[in-house]
Specification:
This protein is of the alpha/beta class. It folds into three domains: 112 residues, ATPase, nucleotide binding domain (Nucleotidyltransferase, domain 5, 2-Layer Sandwich); 64 residues; 135 residues, no CATH class. Helix content is 54%, strand content 11%. The protein is built from 13 helices and nine strands. The strands form three sheets. A five-stranded mixed β-sheet has the order 3-2-1-4-5. The chain has a two-stranded antiparallel ribbon with strand order 6-9. Strands 7-8 form a two-stranded antiparallel ribbon. The protein is globular. The C terminus is likely disordered.
Length: 320
């Protein structure tokens, strides 16, 4: 029997205070506090290797994943969106912590061949992604403040001062992100991505960081990992509307969309963008397609260690 087949399948539902654990096969369910000491004690009692499915929740799952991986267990992070549809598909009517742990174990047992095993990233990479997500939160807050305070003419000076302060904080975060990338040895790769028309320093940082998050056999896998793959819905003569899967970090997709809006004005990408529009795509759909193309080209540059050559884009078409 293979080692993977001998592993016990376990589902763990994570909340801020508690861990609900369900062991498939024995049907044993247990609960423990969500603290590092309790997690260490629970894994210390195990006598055999396990494979564990966890639904990521904020940062509450991190101690479980780190301890499990350090002890040689296989860890799988389940996509919450897919798990919700799986729950509906198997007809589970109860949405509670213990039942979710059981569902996670069942999902892993049946779909393990289609799932990617989780692997930890370095503390430096963790800090980078945490800072990038905080920046995204700050950008949303700035937009909200701008829209909510725009009509306060009597307080315009104060509003401008607030927005200016937020801009200054964003610039400091950008500098911190660039310094972090240099410390991790990403500077050359960031410069390589920045050579793409429309791709600014922040988008280049996000692309390089995403590239280092896993091992991708091709550009399609890289694009799917970022949630920019297209979900197709067809049946007979019916053709449903195609949408992005939107898996992974939404901030990367937002940055690529903005890069496409900027890049469509360049001589390199303008023909591609116009061809998409002539095919009947809306401006938004064309920007998404161009953003996906930027991701595809950046993957090739990072994978092959080559520099961007604008002349190679002269013969490209909108079907690529």
């Amino acid at each position: 029997m293979k080692q993977d087949e001998a592993r016990i399948t376990v589902g763990v539902d994570v909340s801020k205070q508690r861990l609900e654990v369900f062991e498939l096969g024995t049907g044993e369910a247990s609960s423990s506090p969500n603290s590092l000491d309790a997690v260490e004690q629970w894994f210390g009692r195990l006598l055999a290797p396990i494979r564990v499915a966890i639904e990521p929740t904020n940062s509450y799952h991190e101690s479980v994943t780190q301890v499990a991986h350090a002890r040689g267990h296989q860890v799988y992070l389940s996509d919450p969106h897919r798990l919700a549809h799986y729950r509906q598909g198997v007809g589970q009517r109860v949405k509670a912590d213990r039942q979710d742990a059981q569902l996670l174990a069942r999902y892993l047992e049946r779909e393990v061949s289609e799932l990617r095993e989780w692997a930890p990233i370095t503390p430096a990479q963790q800090g980078f992604w945490r800072l990038l997500r905080r920046r995204a939160t700050l950008v949303r807050a700035k937009v909200q403040r701008h829209h909510s305070l725009v009509e306060l003419a009597s307080l315009q000076a104060d509003v401008d001062a607030l927005l200016k302060h937020l801009d200054q904080l964003l610039h400091k975060i950008d500098r911190a992100l660039m310094m972090q990338a240099k410390r991790m040895g990403w500077a050359a790769q960031v410069a390589r991505c920045r050579a793409l028309p429309g791709v600014g320093p922040l988008t280049a940082l996000a692309l390089v960081a995403r590239y280092h998050r896993g091992e991708f056999v091709c550009a399609d896998a890289f694009i799917a990992f970022m949630g920019m793959a297209v979900r197709v819905r067809e049946s007979g003569q019916w053709r449903g509307r195609r949408k992005l899967t939107k898996k992974g970090d939404p901030e990367v997709r937002r940055l690529l969309f903005n890069a496409a809006m900027q890049g469509r004005r360049s001589p390199v990408w303008k023909p591609y963008y116009l061809a998409l529009r002539q095919r009947g795509l809306s401006a938004t759909a064309a920007f998404v397609a161009l953003g996906r193309q930027l991701a595809r080209v950046s993957f090739a540059l990072l994978k092959n260690g080559t520099e961007f050559n604008p002349s190679l884009r002269a013969g490209s078409c909108a079907s690529t």
